[in-house]
């Protein structure tokens, strides 16, 4: 299968790889997928409680090149956005940006899920 | 050293230049039809086919009259299963095979199942080997065929064909083996192993694609087959169709080279494979060999690199041609059924890589491949949330994964 140049770029130079302190109340963590399915994404966001702006984002992904690229792109996109803005990111936007073929659409779905899961985790922390 | 490096010799092998040289005249000057009985062109073609058939037979200890030329091993497997099933219908309707067989066998068996035959798919151990007691118990007075592959195409595991042949002979059941990956790589003799039918392929042993053979025993017992391709009655009526003379000549030359060079070549493959294996095991933690290491083709290494998905690993070593058991690399989007049959968890199946070392690989190439694999695995593990969790002491099996996808 031929990968698009953007997928190859994200695979070779993934943005925002790493981890944020999970216990930090300002950090929301989303862990989606399963090892049996061949894809696991962990996406973390650090949110300013006053402005609800995502000030930092990190990811780690177990998965194919398209999964790595989708999550790398997701961290790039959410950084600097408010939570409300981040929630408007759709998997189809990722598919378009990375020119993912139909068999790789689930990678983009997983990335969207990871964003939502990280935001939900942050919101839950604020409520607690 | 030339890039990219080809290390996927279970998928196919390059044609040996000596094989190509032998084939060339048969495309242009000696283009005759081997079935043309009354002119020089036909005689030349027939003589070349006879010589090639002798070489193919010699490689497996058979009589040349027992070699039926086909278009490849898929056809040979189909002919063995369907041909025996149809011919021995009155004797019985039961076939025994194994879950890790090639699709050409599994699908042929499923085909005859629809026609009312009963098929037993024997399980394998976590090493990839069948249990002889399972086999003995599965045989009934309705069993007409046992078909078990010699060496597996994914994990390279070699079944004890001699023992299976013995059991089949004792019970008076015909024994077929798909020997595609084994012949030319390890010693294989149809008489010592009590094999009644065997599938061979030229392109897995440095011959051309599009030609293979089915060995069909002529005596003790004499095996009869109902053909699946009808026509001019070529190949003693078992496989009609004008013979692929250049292909057969190439097959013969490949068989001759394989027979003459097998001991040295097999030892060299084993040295290179062990060099690759020991380097990877020394430099990386949590790597797992899939299938038995002792009973294995010398050139095969099938290894899982935990926490690194196979397709992403292949992408990282894009100047090296190998295969993965990961779902993402298969047409079915399912991880390898062979690894699954061994009880390899789907998580590890996704991380498996098959290295197939062949005649033209060098030590320098093996060292380059191991270096590239090691650096890519390390890079991808730094990127892997699973590796991070495992290092934190989290038991990944106990994590509640959201699998609503």
Summarize the structure.
The complex is a heterodimer of chains A (about 130) and B (about 400). Chain A is α+β, with helices and mostly antiparallel strands.
Describe this structure in words.
The complex is a heterodimer of chains A (128) and B (405). By secondary structure, chain A is an alpha+beta fold. Helix content of chain A is 45%, strand content 22%. Chain A has a single domain, classed as Sufe protein. Chain: A (Alpha-Beta Complex), CATH 3.90.1010. In chain A, helix 1 (5-12) packs across helix 2 (65-78) and helix 4 (91-98) packs across helix 5. Chain A is globular, with a radius of gyration of 14 Å. Chain B is α/β, with parallel strands linked by helices and 405 residues long. In chain B, helix 6 (161-170) links the parallel strand 5 (143-147) and strand 6. The longest helix of chain B is centred in the middle third of the chain and has 39 residues, at 245-283. The chains are: A alpha+beta (128), B alpha/beta (405). Chains A and B meet through strand 1, strand 2, strand 3, helix 2 and helix 5 of A and helix 8 and helix 12 of B.
Stretches with pLDDT under 50, minimum 5 residues of chain B: none
Output the helix-strand order of chain B: EHHEHEHEHEHEEEHEEHEEHHEHH
Distance separating the two termini of chain B: 44 Å
Q: For the record, what CATH class of chain A applies?
A: Alpha Beta
Interface with most residues = A-B, 32 and 28 residues
The secondary structure category of chain B is alpha/beta
Supply the number of helical segments of chain B: 12
Strand content of chain B: 5-15%
How are the strands of the biggest sheet of chain B laid out side by side?
2-8-7-6-5-3-4
* Main sheet specs of chain A: 3 strands, antiparallel
**Averaged pLDDT of chain A:** 95
Radius of gyration of chain B: 22 Å
Which oligomeric state applies? heterodimer
The proportion of residues in beta strands of chain A is 15-25%
Biggest sheet architecture of chain B: 7 strands, mixed
Order of helical and strand elements of chain A: HEEEHHHH
Number of domain units of chain A: 1
Tally of discrete structural domains of chain B: 2
Class derived from helix and strand content of chain A: alpha+beta
User: Portion of residues in helices of chain A?
Assistant: 40-55%
